[in-house]
Amino acid sequence: MKIIMLGAPGAGKGTQAKQIAAKYSIPHISTGDIFRANIKNGTELGKKAKTYMDQGLLVPDELTCDLVMDRIQQDDCKNGFVLDGFPRTIPQAESLDAALEKIDQKMDYAIDVDVPDENIINRMGGRRACLNCGATYHIVSIPPKKEGICDHCGNALVLRDDDKPETVKKRLDVYHEQTQPLIDYYAKQNILKTVDGTQPMEAVFDAIVSVLEA
Ligand code: ADP
Ligand code: ADP
Ligand code: ZN
To answer: What is the pTM of this model?
Structure first.
């Protein structure tokens, strides 16, 4: 099963992608997590990506596409994968399609987790991230067991640099301009499924499972 998670920043793509990956035993591939790991490790890619991420802008397609194409050709992706945060532009979607076509494959589902902008600002302000294992929480709706500490690995949780309100606004603009057109792109391919992302986390997951098992 090859799945793309679509949706605004903060819509809950990562939260759902992790659960899908666990339920169907397929890898969760988050370009945001890959960039943040590179930043943490001080790699060249990380240094380049950070200048864009801090401004709420997209990392250029040249830096993003090869990385994903390499990743999806690894052995653990044989039975499928869930892409979270990629593609984010039409050219990225086209390179993904082209790469899959070469090996006679195609994406199965693009799931749009639909959440209006009004809800996003609140979600991002309350998001806390573990930069060690990638887990995410929300201080009100999905709190960790112990305040400020990751349930999975015990590391300290942080507010991401790009989750500050000014940057969130910019990221939403970028989303509407560059990423939202993908909704039409996948509707035309007949693989678009929309779920109401304003529901509680468990209800959103149930809606996704119904789509995948329909
Ligand atoms: P969110 O989960 O809140 O949408 P991500 O972790 O997916 O945020 O992405 C954080 C930042 O990483 C983005 O704002 C962008 O700068 C960069 N990024 C992640 N994925 C991509 C991508 N596919 N193309 C370009 N930039 C990306
Ligand atoms: P994305 O990957 O789309 O940027 P996340 O999965 O990181 O989004 O979720 C953004 C924030 O909203 C996080 O703080 C997360 O804990 C919280 N969140 C995720 N799903 C829900 C939900 N259904 N209801 C309320 N809060 C949610
Ligand atoms: Zn952790």
So the answer is: 0.96
